[in-house]
């Protein structure tokens, strides 16, 4: 099987071969006998997964299969899926993401994947260390690829996480994830990826520190942001209750 040849440098990676009769019921399944194949019931695509492992080897991640089934020696898309949401018009679900993920894996290789993972963790902890004196850190446990602050200190003066995110736009940054996870009230979830440079991280940190000062000294400036965009504050309540999902020409 062609996929096995490309993934050989990464083996042993647990490979999930889904078939009612076990791995050998799938075409070329014998190719996977040395890759820790795990038979389950439902279709028959080979599905690769590189799970996160705890230090003791316990698996902490999983993924869902593509709706494929074997027919005539080839894999075909299976549309009759009573337990699914059905066909996604004009698209095949998130297949494109699987292709991008595989391309990323092949481009980086085993050592590169480890390095990019470590870089993402390093970036998140770097931002955490640089901002924890100005933004509330609700949990003191170690950060992995993301760091979650809360707006507790800024909210005391008026600005909330949503206001801070909108103010970031004025500094040229895409806002972080707002109000998530839900277990943190007023959450600011910042996820710097492995591709961000030290220079870019420092610019982001400078912007967040400047906004923290603004929230303390001139909270109205933050509460009315953004100021540099063509459209400023939108009616978010109206947008949620009566969304306009397509453009219509003016009469």
Secondary-structure map:
Blueprint (H helix, E strand, L loop, with lengths): L1 H6 L7 E4 L19 E3 L5 E3 L19 E4 L2 E4 L17 H37 L15 E4 L1 H4 L5 H10 L6 E2 L8 E4 L7 H20 L1 H5 L12 H6 L10
Parallel strand pairs: 1-2
Antiparallel strand pairs: 1-3, 4-5, 6-8, 7-8
Helix pairs in contact: 2-5
| Cross-sheet strand order for the largest sheet | 2-1-3
Rg over CA atoms, rounded to whole Å, is 24 Å
Order of helices and strands: HEEEEEHEHHEEHHH
The secondary-structure class comes to: alpha+beta
Report the sheet-strand fraction: 5-15%
Oligomeric state as shown: single chain
Biggest sheet features: 3 strands, mixed
The best one-word shape is globular
Number of domains: 2
Report the span from N to C terminus.
58 Å
CATH superfamily of the largest domain: Aspartate Aminotransferase, domain 1
What is the helix content? 25-40%
CATH architecture of the largest domain: Alpha-Beta Complex
Description of the molecule:
The strands form three sheets. A three-stranded mixed beta sheet has the order 2-1-3, with no helix packed on it. The protein has a three-stranded antiparallel beta sheet with strand order 6-8-7. The chain is an alpha+beta fold. α2 (95-131) packs across α5. It has helices at 2-7, 95-131, 152-155, 161-170, 198-217, 219-223, 236-241; strands at 15-18, 38-40, 46-48, 68-71, 74-77, 147-150, 177-178, 187-190. The chain folds into two domains: 2-93, no CATH class; 123-231, Aspartate Aminotransferase, domain 1, CATH 3.90.1150.10. 19% of the residues are buried.
Characteristic key phrases:
single chain; alpha+beta; Aspartate Aminotransferase, domain 1; three-stranded antiparallel sheet; 7 helices; about 10% strand; globular
